[in-house]
Design a protein that fits this description.
This protein has 86 residues and is mostly beta strands. The protein contains one helix and seven strands; from the N terminus they run βββαββββ.
């Protein structure tokens, strides 16, 4: 399985999650920044690296930015997480 460095976003101390409660993980910093742009958030700060449990009960949803398709679901397994906080 392909590994990548992933990013998560927290807003006011809360992680961004999908409608089913899964933690939204962005495949790249570019993907996270594109999401923030779509949400009209133009100021953010890079957060510290976050340790996420390898626990299988933690549900995540991976999102990747594709130039012609926008944000799309991805199936990559992340090797490390860092937070982008606004």
């Amino acid at each position: 399985m392909h590994h990548c460095t992933c990013h998560a976003i927290s807003l006011n101390g809360r992680w961004v999650c999908s409608s089913d409660g899964s933690l939204t993980i962005f495949h790249s910093r570019q993907s996270a920044e594109h999401f923030l742009e779509l949400a009209h958030i133009d100021h953010y700060e890079l957060g510290e690296e976050a340790e996420l449990s390898e626990d299988v009960s933690l549900k995540t949803q991976c999102v990747s930015f594709r130039p012609r398709k926008g944000l799309v679901s991805c199936r990559m397994r992340c090797s490390g997480e860092s937070a982008l906080a606004s």
